[in-house]
Amino acid sequence: MLGTAGALAGHATAAPAGDTPLSSVGSGRSSFHGRHQPGITSELQSCGHLVAFDLMPGAGRKEAAALLRRWSATAGRLMAGEPAGDGDTGVALDAGPASLTVTFGFGRSFFDRTGLASRRPGALAPLPPYSSDRIDKSRSEGDLWVQIGANDSLVAFHALRAIQKDAGSAARVRWQMNGFNRSPGATVRPMTARNLMGQVDGTRNPRPDEKDFEQKVFVPADGEPDWMANGSYAVVRRIRMLLDDWEKLSPGDQERVIGRRKADGAPLSGGGETSDMDLEKTDAQGDLVVPFTAHARISRPDYNQGATILRRLFSYHDGYGEDGAPDAGMLFVCWQADPMRGFVPLQFHLDRGDALSRYIRHEASGLYAVPGGAAKGEYVGQRLLEG
Q1: Do residues 307 and 348 lie in contact, with contact meaning Cβ atoms separated by under 8 Å?
Q2: pTM attached to this predicted model
Q3: What is the greatest pairwise CA distance in the chain?
Q4: Contact between 100 and 159 (Cβ < 8 Å)
Q5: What are the per-10-residue average pLDDT scores of the chain (387 residues)?
Q6: Annotated catalytic sites, by residue?
Q7: Nearest CA to 339 among 298, 372, 367?
């Protein structure tokens, strides 16, 4: 059971510079229109939904275009804090936009269903299998994928319900998953998030202020295919954490699996959370302080020929199994300009020796082409569907 695709090596963009009082949570607002779609470089939100749709039998390119037009209009209204439109459920009445983002992508099968197979990106190839995969195909892939995030659970659910209702007779839900993160203002000062293993999670994620961030995460404006300009590719994995096994480890053993201190996320070689990791440092017995199989060592870009992904994650908990073990873990979403140079080689490396892989299991998977953002008056995917 190997491989995490760096799922625990980093979270999303850095926390806000100042404290976020709870009274301000509802006023946060993201723009739907722009060069890139929202929900990629946005700050982590406290709750979210991932949902995939399949086009209904008989629905093709025309119906898909009408659907994306409806979805884009609804997302634009909701992200501005307005009602969804006619038939609004009122679920989020009284609430502000609460940093809502809605992001749309196309699965590999979408192009066959719409007669657009010739315009399917080469990067949207099937992901190879990995030894830690226990993939449930009914909760994987899909023609269309939607990511919803917000800092209020009612606002997020309101968006999910509006998107599902807008699908009408054109598409039906294939699978749907719910996730959460720590709420803004829940800590005394802004901090990197923790995952359900209790580890600080997000220290080494690439940041938008890095000079090569755009080329690692987004398809260039003159890239191929042309309709993917300023877009990105999302790999989505439901990664179950085997928490009963993990929690049997001592805190010290947990730290050696990750390669970082549990208390503050600092590397075992010393310093603070953002200190450079000394990969050659040894202890009094001559053993590496950061073990050779530590997740933080193996997932480094410089150990993977520069392979880099932007992780943007939600935790999940879906109850308990018959054996009493929690069905809990991570809804892992990572972004890159090309998954064949990001997720795929990184995961192959992790598959061969990451100590963390004993304590996780990949249970669902998807890869989606996420086009660039829509300008005002346009809808997401218009260049593909009307090109």
Answers
A1: no
A2: 0.93
A3: 70
A4: yes
A5: 38 49 82 98 96 98 98 98 93 95 98 98 96 95 98 98 98 98 88 93 90 96 95 98 98 98 96 95 96 95 90 97 97 97 94 94 98 98 96
A6: 201
A7: 367
